[in-house]
Prior knowledge:
Order of helices and strands: HHHEHHEEHH
Organism: Actinokineospora bangkokensis
InterPro entries: HTH_MarR-typ, MarR/SlyA-like, WH-like_DNA-bd_sf, WH_DNA-bd_sf
CATH superfamily of the largest domain: Winged helix-like DNA-binding domain superfamily/Winged helix DNA-binding domain
Number of helices: 7
Distance between the termini: 46 Å
Protein name: MarR family transcriptional regulator
Structural class: mainly alpha
CATH architecture of the largest domain: Orthogonal Bundle
GO molecular function, one term: DNA-binding transcription factor activity
Largest sheet: 3 strands, antiparallel
GO biological process, one term: response to stress
Number of strands: 3
Helix content: 55-70%
Amino acid sequence: xxxxxxxxxxxxxxxxxxxxxxxxxxxxxxxxxxxxxxxxxxxxxxxxxxxxxxxxxxxxxxxxxxxxxxxxxxxxxxxxxxxxxxxxxxxxxxxxxxxxxxxxxxxxxxxxxxxxxxxxxxxxxxxxxxxxxxxxxxxxxxxxxxxxxxxxxxx
Length: 155
C-alpha cells in the first residue's frame, strides 16, 4: 500500500509541477528571513538587481526582474521609504526615474544574500554539490532560452 502522502505519479512526471514544488520548498527559509525585515521576495529582487547591475532606470529594472512596471512602483515605494534605495531623475532622460541602492540597502542586500544562499544549501542538502550545480545549470538553460525567445532572439 502506498504512503498516504505520496503525490500522484502523473503530476510527478511533469517537470513544471516538480520545479514549482521545489521552488515553494526553497522559498520557505528565504521568505522567513525577509519577513524578519518586513520585506517580501520582490523587495529582495529589487535590492539584488540593483546590487548586481548598479543604478538602473525604473523601467529597465522592471524588465530585468520580469516584474510588472506598475507593481514595481509599489515595491520601490516601500524600500525607498526605508532608506534602502533612492530614486532620482535619470540624467540621460529627464522623463525617467533612475533607482540607486543606498549604502544601507547594499548592507541589507549582502546580509540577505548570505541567508538566501544558506537557505538554498539547506533545501538542496539531499543533493551532492555536483548534483546541485547540474540542477542549476539545467534550470538556467531553460530560463535563458525563455528570456531569449521573449526578447525575439534565437537560442
